[in-house]
Structures are given as structure tokens and as C-alpha cells.
Amino acid sequence: MKPVAKLGTDVKAKIGESLREIYDDIVRQGVPERFSLILRGFDDGNDESSKNEPKE
Amino acid sequence: MSPNRNIREVMLAAVPSLRAFAISLCGNVDRADDLVQEALLRALANLSSFEPGTNMSAWLFTILRNLFRSEYRKRRREVEDVDGSYAEQLTFSPEQSTRLEINEFREALKSLPPEQREALILVGASGFSYEEAARICGCAVGTIKSRVNRARGRLAEILSIEDTSDFGPDRETRAVVNSDLLTRRS
After folding, report:
1. Which residue of B26, B149, B160 is the best one to mutate when testing the A interface, meaning the one whose CB has the most A CBs within 10 A?
2. Over the stretch B84-119, which tens digit does the pLDDT of each residue have?
3. Which of B90, B118, B141 is the last residue of a domain?
């Protein structure tokens, strides 16, 4: 495979920044209820199971 | 039979990132969530194969990626991927952000070969080391490094190029290039 040209750290940083912005948008949505129900089951009580739900 | 509470809490903590990875693979939130659900159920059913003390996220990502790949292969066989529309979906969904420059970045990301995009996301966004990403993808560390480098190189090229005439990109890339992203990003 042909080696790729070396990229400056600022280029890498800019790419990383945009990438994380897109990614973190989704991460910030938290855990949809369907997944907390799967992982905590229905027997953990309402208080706890609602802690990690998406904000909206 | 139910897994202990502690492990389930660790799994839960990994879900937001797992979900972001799934969306980056599927390009469709509903399908990504189905994939996450399938991966979690698979993980719960195979908890005995998880080695305590190892990285739970990496384990879940590996399961999810394997499920996605087998689904993708199956789907390709069934649908024959009319006009490649399925492959084109393989990126973050476009409604995530209204900011133009981020949408342009997204378009550039979409134009990457899937294995390069995946490696870049695992290392650059999910926060895995090259070694962990290699284990998740079932390939050599050097392969991951090379994919990440190529992905970055290609993004840098797409997003900074000014003259489309000597580049000869496909239509999609040209649209990104024409939008003079660089001047606004810097």
C-alpha cells in the first residue's frame, strides 16, 4: 500500500473536532428507554430506570 | 440467570457511544437502535464470554459490528443494492445538525470507504486505542493505523481543495468541494 502524506497536527485536530462534534451530538442523547429497560429490567423501580433517559 | 446489576450498569454506560457508532454504520437512527438492541441482547446472552476487567465498550462494539456486517452481507444478497443507495446511507444521519460546515464534513465523511470511516470513528470519536480498534475490527494494528491515516488524508484533501478541475471527484465529492468549506472553517 502506498503511504499517505503526513498530515499536520492542526489538520488532524480539525478533523477530530468535527468528528467528535457529530458523534457527541448523538452521545448527548443519552440512553433511550428501550435500552435501560433491557439492561435494568422492569423490576428496578421507576426512579432509577428514568435516570438515564434522553433529555428530550 | 439475570446478569449481575453491576455489569448491566457498565453496559448501560456504554450505550450512548455504542449508539453513536451504530448510527455511523447504519446512517439511520431506527435501524441503528434495532442494531444496538440486538447487540445488547446478544451480549446479555453471552455474558459468560466477557472477561471481567477488560473493556466492556470494546466488547459491545465488537458484537455490534459483527451483527452489522452479517446483516449488511445478507441485505446485499437480498436487495442487490439497487443503485448503491444502501451504501450511501452509511454515515451519520443528515438531520443531526443544521450547521452548514458540519453537514459538509458529514458529506466528506460519507465519501470515505466504509472501512476507513469506521477506523477513523473508532479512534477519532469513540476514543479507542489503535490496538482496541484493531481488535474490534478483527484486523492488524497497522491496518487500522493505515486506514485512519488514509481517512484523514482524504478528508483533508476533500475539505481543502479549491480547484475541482484537477481533482476529478465524483458528483458528491464535487458538491462538497464547491461549497468552499475551508474558508469558513478556518
Report:
1. B149
2. 444 444 455 545 445 568 888 998 999 999 999 999
3. B90
- Domain residues for B183? 92-186
Both B79 and B169 in one domain: the answer is no
pTM of the model: 0.73
Say if residue B150 is in the same domain as residue B64: no
CATH number at B134 reads: 1.10.10.10
Are B125 and A22 an interchain contact pair (Cβ–Cβ within 8 Å)?
yes
ipTM computed for the complex: 0.71
Q: Running along chain A, 56 residues long, what does each successive block of 10 average in pLDDT?
A: 64 89 94 93 49 48
- For residue B186, the one-letter residue type is S
Burial environment of residue A43 by CB neighbours within 10 A (0 to 12, 13 to 18, 19 or more): exposed
A37: closest CA among B87, B64, B58, B33? B33
